[in-house]
Amino acid sequence: MSYKLLIVDDEKMLTDLLQEYLKNEGYLVYTANNAAEALEKLGVNPDLILLDINMPEVDGYQLCREIRSHVACPILFLTARIAEQDSVNGFAVGGDDYITKPFRLHELTARIAAHLRRDARSRQSSRVVASNHLIVNLSERSVFFQEQELVFSKREFDIIEFLMTHAGQVFDKERIYEGVWGYEAEGDSDVIKEHIRKIRAKIKAVTEEEYIETVWGVGYKWRH
Amino acid sequence: MSYKLLIVDDEKMLTDLLQEYLKNEGYLVYTANNAAEALEKLGVNPDLILLDINMPEVDGYQLCREIRSHVACPILFLTARIAEQDSVNGFAVGGDDYITKPFRLHELTARIAAHLRRDARSRQSSRVVASNHLIVNLSERSVFFQEQELVFSKREFDIIEFLMTHAGQVFDKERIYEGVWGYEAEGDSDVIKEHIRKIRAKIKAVTEEEYIETVWGVGYKWRH
DNA sequence: CAGGAATGTCAAGGAATTGTCAAAATGATT
DNA sequence: AATCATTTTGACAATTCCTTGACATTCCTG
Description:
2 copies of one chain form a homodimer. Chain A is α/β, with parallel strands linked by helices. Chain A has helices at residues 12-24, 35-41, 60-68, 105-120, 154-164, 173-181, 191-204, and strands at residues 4-8, 28-32, 48-52, 75-80, 97-101, 128-131, 134-137, 142-145, 148-150, 212-215, 219-222.
């Protein structure tokens, strides 16, 4: 299934040209040369919209707001370079990106592709924590050291997350238990020792760097 | 009081647009379009920095390192779509997060807000005591003299914390024992002598300054 | 300025904490 | 139900640090 693009520009020559080109790139392309037509074509439910905001007789920003209220897809502005100091901000009315005319065709397609990819990659903002060379993606629950992924079990990851989001702070085992398990440890919280060992071992398999520091007689902390 | 943001990107149009938008969100926004300007604008002491690392004629990573050596605030990378793989390296030079262009504005603002929240929290939770050049972080249980960290054992640190938070006051050994151990000393509280010695030795290895003063016939106190 | 009491120094044994490992209990998947 | 991965447990080893006691030094007082 190919992506649907909607191009809105008053210059029919430009829309036709782009349509031709983008069709060859594998997109389904729809065009509109005025506001009314644009709103009408929203019916096809495009995946991305290219919008010229400097159209005569049309308030591009108003149109953008209007479009935005109907669809959630990325909107890419086409703007003339002269109109730089426009008082209204394209972003403020729901635009996602802008390209200044004149532009290279391959730049346009690169940006279109980037937006579509980004859009597909569910737009949940990924919370990422990093320390030194370890990159921890909290929403994907993944851990990378350079190119290599480290696999941790649930508890292991939870402990990493807990310590890492409070990097530098020292926690005794009871606090860690409470923070990760969600309730107080009944007997001794000796489990943590073992999990820490596993975590350290997995990290050590990849790098010599120490991330979890033992604070003797107190607890553990994540190096920052 | 509103947060101060510094946006660094070579595209003036982008910095202007973002400035406009983020101003409406209630931030104080400063912009810079090149490295020199960026370093200069650090003077305003921003709470968060948005940094494009793919600027022409500027080594973004070098700039980041440079910035990091001046300020401790969160640095959010903006990376171009093509150079996605590069973004990972950003963490190595002190970046805190990255957003690939193009991005959704609400994603950007969400991340900015998240970082500022996090920063505020961590700043709040770090209880720090300082005297002369010694900086003691009570939540990290770390002690620094200028750039150098001094490592203390649990009891040693506890004694430092006890004396330092009551700087100037004299305590006899029984009171110190009680305050640090949490219960009264059974026999003589001679242990303290030894701990004080160790503490002094570790500090002396780094500076000649005396921090713990002996009040003969009475006890000890922390100089203020 | 000598004597005694308080403090400083040092080395070493013992106490407490943490690291390690294997095996048992629990939970998940097919 | 059987298998597999994960979590927990407990015993032991390794490590760190706390404490002790003997001795040296300093300080105050007579």
